[in-house]
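tool=predict chain=A
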Amino acid sequence: MARPRDTRFYEIPLPDEIPKSQKWLISYHENCRRLVGYMEQQGAGQTAYYSTIQCLQRLRNYLLDSDLCYSYTESIRWLDNTKFYPKGFKITLSRLSDIYEHGEVQPVNVFPVAVPYSNLLHEPWNELLQGYLNTLDFMEPYMSDIRNRIARFFYAIQLQGVSSPSEITFELIEQYCMTDVHKSKEMDAIYTYSIGDILLYMANRGLCSHGLGWYPYFRMHNRIFDIKDFTDEQIAVIKHYRDDSLDFPSEEYAVAVESFLIDFNKLGYSESPCKMAAYTLHNLLLFLEMNSLGYHKEIAAVWLEREKTYHEKRGWFQASRTLYLFDIYTREGCIMPQSLNITRALRCEALPDWCLAELDEYLEVKNKEDWAASTIDMIRSSVTRFCEYLADSGLKGFDEIDASVIKGFNLCDYHDTPEGKNAYNVRIRKFLKHLERKNIIPYGLNEALLCTSENRERIVITLTDDEKQSIKEKQDASTASIELRDNAMMLLGLKMGIRSIDIVNLKLDDLDWKNQCIRIYQKKTSHEIMLPMPTEVGNAIYLYISNGRANKKNIL
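tool=predict ok
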């Protein structure tokens, strides 16, 4: 006698009256029935067939136990929290999502063979994708990852009926980012940044606006400024200058920004101000394009005032100076770094004449010695603090200084750190030597101003067992090129104690596979050392080199 077929959960009739919070079960059962029927029609084997049913039933139980309704986001969250699950569970959830959204399983998720997104693209998307990939120089595994991320986006907007880059809108990108779910925030960021990369590639060829390309980046960092959040006064200012701003359209502004940033970098600024300049101008570009505005100094000022709430004080001042220099650039055609947008009286100008005269003479000597402007400013600040103490103590000239006066100043002059106090004292001592050479104060009096020191004891923070286990689980699950690289870098630091600067400078020639060791030239100490390489570290490096490393001299 044949064994009767088991009753599926979706075949069990639901009660006539079910709680409102469980109404989703009606559509869930119907869509599950359609998905299982689809698998049966496609000739799925017993493993794939019953794995589909098991996945759908376990998801249903989870949602009921958690008092949740079905959504693709919740299904992915359940899968992420499930440590061990059959291989077919993830694509089963994608197929179920297809039936919910499109009424049928999409070609990219068909059974038995899923079609790559890139094979489903029409023109011009396929041509644009290939053109962008031709500008990159990575190994094939990483190129394949990039191709899949971008093709995934192109296929999604293709389903929306978009047939040209000019039809892409901010709303379309936002809708895609909201519905495109990934297993972790890190993967979500990787996919989102790839969207920005391809949009900027198209924008640089005049196929779409530049603001679209910057939207994904700033969305990831919650830096999208909605004009509705501005105050009524700020909105009134923007409306007042709207028509005038259109004389400098946003696309012309985008071209001017790139030209400005090239000249800005040529001036030799450090990495921090260069990054801040790019961030500020590109974020302003996004704001202008989202609100159909052109560039105007007053609109930029209003935006900067609103942007102030997202920045620390120092970062906001850098952003303010960037906009000041850019505005000069739009009028003069060049950057004037010596120009200051903030003018205020120097603190030393309030000193008595007998202090100011010697300070000016000393600074003139330092200028002739060709010290940098920042060094001169530090000297001026240090000596000014000393002179202010002398004036407040009732002295009428430098010839009245003695060891007790210097000791009193040293006790009263407070700094946050010993390093800061020593930096000031060194410069004041040199000023005292200047006075000694002029026979204004006795020779050797500068030695009364001592440097300070402080013993430091710090608690060494180490990884807990849970943290180590979490790292190991993430390393075991690493498949993408960037994850393999991060895994290798982490193990080099964790297992071998190598400094980060030395890790990024590692070259293939530094690896001795035969003797299982690594030769390192330490950047900090300028010494070369040879360290034994644990098997775990060697395996991680080998996996990255063979599956994800770009064709370059350095390993990482």
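The chain has five domains: 9-109, 117-220, 227-332, 347-448, 471-547. The mean pLDDT is 86.
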